[in-house]
Structure formats: C-alpha cells, structure tokens
Amino acid sequence: MITTNTGKFIRYTGLAWLSALMTRLCWADFWLICTSVLSLVGGLYGLGNLLKMPAMRVNFFLISAVIIVLASAFGVLFGFVSISLVSHDIWEITIDYAYTTTVDLALAQAYTNTFAIVFWLLGNRLHHSGMIGSVYQDIATCLHDYKRILLMLVVAILICQLYLFTINVVVYGGKDLATEGEPTHPLLALITPLVSVLPFVLAYYARGYFQAGRWVAGMLFIILLLGELNWFFLFGRRSIVYFFILLFAGLGHANVLTGRGIVKNIVPICISLFVILTIADTYHKMRSVYGFQNLQRMNLVDGLTNLKTNTDDEKYDSIRKMNLSVRSAYSSLALGQFVNLFRTTPHEPLAGRILMTSILLATPSDFLINKKSVLAKEALYESSYSLRLTDISETLYLEAFIDFGWFGGFLYAGFIFALFYGIYALARHSNNPLFSLIVSCTSVSLALAMIEVDMITFLANIRTLFVYYLVTRLFFWKTEPRQPSYGMTETSKTILR
Length: 497
Description:
Layout: H1 4-22, H2 28-52, H3 60-86, H4 88-97, H5 102-128, H6 131-145, H7 147-166, E1 170-171, E2 174-175, H8 186-191, H9 197-211, H10 215-234, H11 237-251, H12 259-264, H13 266-290, H14 292-295, H15 300-305, H16 313-328, H17 330-344, H18 353-362, H19 377-385, H20 396-404, H21 408-429, H22 433-448, H23 455-476, H24 490-496
Keywords: Membrane, Transmembrane, Transmembrane helix
Protein name: Oligosaccharide repeat unit polymerase
Transmembrane segments: 30-48, 60-85, 105-122, 149-174, 186-206, 215-234, 240-258, 265-283, 404-427, 434-451, 457-476
C-alpha cells in the first residue's frame, strides 16, 4: 500500500531523471536546477509523511531516503545558486577542480534519487510487515515501564564520556590527530553508537517533568542535555544538527506533526533554528580562527572566551560563505567526479572490492587480515583509477556507484536491508524493550548521517548493535513475552488508507 505522499515522493524524485537526461541536450544549468528542485519537492513530501506517522520516524530506510534526497538536492541547489550569484566563472572553476561537469552533477542527483527510492520502498515493506510497529511499541514500553534501567544506562554513558574527556581521548574534532592510524579507544568505540540515546531520552523525560509541574527535575534534565551538547559539539557541525534532531524527536515522540501545528509553533521553531545555526557556526569559526590542530591542544573554554577578540568578522564572513557553498555540494561533487569518469573513460566499477574491504576492515582487530595491508577509500580509488583525491565525501551511495556502477544502488540497498532486517527481527522477537530503543536511536542517528557514513562505519555500528543485544539481555532475561504485532495500528491504517 502506498500513501499519497509516498507516491509523490517516488513521482517527483523519479521525474528528476527526465530533467537530468535533458542536461545532455541543452541548457545544462537550467536542467540541473530543475533536477534539484524536483528532488527537493519529492524529499519534502517524504518528510511530510514522516511527520504525520510517529512509527515511521524509527524506520531507518524511510528516514535515510528523505535525508539522502533532501541533503543532496539542497546541497547542489544551494551551492550552484550561491556561487553563481557571485560569478558563474567561479562555479565553472569549482566543478572543473572536482573533475566533473553540470551534466554529471545532474546524473549524479538522479542516481542518488534512485538509491533513495529503493530505500523508501524497502522501508515501506518493513513498515507494512508490522515489524517497525512492534519495535515502536517496545520503545513506549521501555520509556514507561523500564525508566530506572534506562536512566542507569544514561548515567553510565555520561560517566564514560566524562572519563574520555578527562584522559583526552575525545578532543575538538572528535579523535586526536596525533593518534591517527591507531586503533580507536575500546570504550569510545563501545559507547559512540549509544550516545544517540541520550538526547532522545533526556528530552523525553524533561518534557514529562515540565508537563507534570516538576520543574526542579525538569531543569536537571535540561542541564544534562547542555552537558551532552558539549560532546556533540566536539564532533563537528553536522553532529550538532544531529543532536538537536534527536532532542526534538524525544520532545515530539508519539506526536503527530501537521502543517498546522508547525505554523502554530513557528516562533519557537525559528528560535531553535537560530540557536542551532549559531552553535554550528561557532564550531566553524573556532576552526577558522585558531586552526584545527591548535584547537585539539587548547582549553575550549578559553577559546570560546577569546573568540570574539581574535576574529576578523569581515574576513571570516567571506570564508564562511565560500565554505558553505562548496561543502553543501561536497557529496554530489564527489559522486559527479566518478559519473564523469565512467561516462567519458574506459574505466569500469570495482566489482565489489569496496564492499569486501569494508567487511574486512569492520571485523574486530586483525582477526581476518592485517588491516594496514588493505587499501580502502581514497587509497583504493587512487590506485585503481590513477586519480589524485583529497578528502572526498564518503557516502554509501558513492561507494555503491564506484563498486557496481548504475546498478550499485540496488545491490547495496539489498545488502543493507538484509542486515537491518536481521536487527529489526531480533528486536521484535527478543522481548527486549531496551534493545529496541537502542536500535531505534542508533538507526535514526545513522540515517541522519547518511551524507557522511561509509560502509566501514555502517558495518561497525551493526556489529556493535549485536554486542548491545547480548548486553541488554542481562536486564531482560526474565521478561514475559508480549503479543506480537503483525499488523499496523488503527491510526496507521487510517493515514495510509
């Protein structure tokens, strides 16, 4: 069964293929804009579907599809318009530097849409199977019936974070550059996927306490949220955005969000957006003023205190505008480079080498192979195609394209679906509400990061979820089996009708 908004998501994102093909005939810039706008409209319809259906907001595939389309389409559109307004020649220089063309960018967007459509269809299949509904019910059970265990987990994560801060494992930018190439600290590797639970849970309980008039308890949770924001701040601008999305997911959990409700709350929404953009801009300003490596050795409190006096506002504004324009289109430029490579040269896709190396590198330690002997990411691309690459944006749909060409989206999506189907099935049949909550928060966090997650990171998170399952069984080994939910709720049926 396909909803109206689902049909429009597929229709508009699919229609973008037609405008992308038109770039090969005439008016390439015009058709690139049309491709991006059609994709953006389709993504917004998909977002509307997620806002109306609370259970859909824990579905990895549906969220990923929307994020992929919106981020890539908006990125290309914003980058093209903002740079071209300054000078169209600068835009031409930018895409030439990335070894791509306007035609390739439009085709890259169309391919990205195909990847997202496959994800959307797979997500709908999961939703209508009742599997997502069961996991969603478990989340409510965990939040209401297992509050003590959940708060114990939150406290444990906060203590681990404080310890990692104290020993300087986590610094500005996340991992210390001085430890590049060394194994990640085991405690950091263990809690990183779990961190996404904190903003959601703390915001949910803070809302409940304030609604019940328990202001002291509510303020305590707000203080904990501010402390947690410090962790996300250190990992970058996108991480800050993810924090607030997870926070709003906790505040609006189980609520149906309509256009009328958004308009009614437009003032707090605008204030929230201003706060998010200000904090994200502060992160980038510190990096521009002090330098990345210097910040990893600095006291961040001192850096924030002296930031205003050390900043040349006019110079920084010009840097910020150019950075935003180029970085917004970063993933599309990277994909466009390989579209151009396969379209204009005899080079062929890598036929699964990226997937195989990702699986090898995602295994614990050097269990299967000496990881230092494995070429991956940029090193693999450079050796295979004699390219010179620097910090290209790694995404699953980019790796799928380099690995299998135009059919890569179907193959990678199928592989990812098999993995997540196993995770969701385990959550559904394990009678383990805590694990279901962890799976939901982790999957939402992964979906939000689809514009920067590669297969190695993805597989590492899946591996860690299986570890969490074993650990959470210690808390729920005596849980009474609940009645399985094979269908959808009445609300779901009404909206999907």
